[in-house]
Design goal:
three-stranded antiparallel β-sheet; 4 domains; about 325 residues; alpha+beta; Tetrahydropterin Synthase, Chain A
């Protein structure tokens, strides 16, 4: 919005003060009529001069019409017009300006209603066209931007709109710039601020994303199981060629299981025979003996017997169980 400069007002008061000085001198000499005439003429000249002076800001251009016809562009700085003949209907701002626009409940190519907010950065490069070629260039560029946005939304899939905002911005810039060039306006850039979709669709997309994450987790778990199976296969090959290592591994597994405060260990009989652990009866007696030691230690409030002390018992029971 154009603000009034104080410089023409200053010129008015300066000329009026000079005329008042002359009028006072005539009044002191006894020429009252001459003093009144001089002061009146001075006020008229001050008014005409101040109305002929205009000051344009650095970022402004004044459109001067002479008797209704375009005369020239003036500014920035100080310039003069002919009072009562020249008029200035527009002060054009040549800086980069911004305008926000939106499209509400607009259907995409896959018939999804969306609300899109965008910002337009534009600049007047030809003030004469902006003043004479269109009645209200600000309203015109706003409507042109909104219709272009609706057109682009109707030709774009929702997924492409959510993922490719930069591409949509580039398309909008091209379309709007082509429409505004005859008005002397150049579009600098277009930025899509937000794309709003219905709440029900947001829930569905959230469930879809969650399902996709679960699928990826299951795939990763399956790949992990495959790697573990391959590792067990390699280990099995080692134990096949080394029975002693298999026996030690079996004893270590039983020891770790019993150490976790367990009194019952379920082991297949075929595994016992394969790992040469002395038969099912010997293993049961070993487990019961360790359980009794733990119970006795708990009754006497003494530390539990180290499981390694059960080794002699196992050695004594194993021959009995194998009979």
């Amino acid at each position: 919005m154009r603000t009034t400069s104080a410089f023409p007002i200053l010129i008015f008061f300066v000329i009026a003060a000079i005329g008042g000085g002359f009028a006072f001198s005539f009044h002191a000499a006894g020429h009252d009529y001459s003093a009144f005439l001089v002061f009146g003429i001075t006020l008229f000249l001050a008014g005409i001069t101040s109305s002929a002076i205009r000051v344009a800001d650095q970022w402004s251009k004044a459109v001067v019409l002479r008797l209704g016809k375009f005369q020239a562009l003036r500014g920035p700085g100080l310039f003069f017009i002919i009072p009562l003949i020249d008029t200035i209907p527009y002060w054009i701002d040549i800086r980069v300006l911004t305008s926000s626009f939106k499209a509400e409940k607009t259907l995409t190519k896959d018939t999804v209603p969306v609300d899109v907010d965008a910002v337009l950065f534009w600049k007047i490069v030809d003030p004469e066209k902006a003043a004479l070629a269109v009645a209200d260039y600000q309203s015109a560029i706003g409507w042109a931007s909104q219709t272009a946005l609706r057109d682009v939304i109707g030709k774009t899939m929702l997924s492409d709109m959510l993922e490719g905002r930069d591409k949509i911005s580039a398309v909008l810039q091209t379309i709007i710039d082509a429409r505004t060039q005859p008005w002397g306006i150049s579009v600098q850039s277009v930025e899509v601020k937000d794309v709003l979709i219905p709440a029900s669709l947001e829930d569905a997309m959230s469930m879809q994303a969650q399902a996709e994450r679960e699928r990826q987790a299951r795939v990763i778990l399956g790949e992990s199981e495959l790697q573990v199976a391959l590792s067990f296969g390699e280990a099995a090959k080692t134990y096949t060629n080394n029975p002693v290592a298999l026996h030690l591994r079996a004893m270590n597994m039983l020891y770790e299981g019993l150490k976790q405060n367990s009194t019952i260990v379920i082991v297949p009989s075929s595994a016992i025979e394969t790992m040469q652990l002395g038969g099912l009866a010997g293993l049961t007696a070993l487990t019961m003996g360790i359980g009794q030691d733990k119970a006795l230690a708990a009754t006497n409030n003494q530390p539990q017997t180290d499981l390694s002390s059960a080794a002699p018992v196992a050695d004594s029971i194993a021959p009995i169980a194998s009979r």
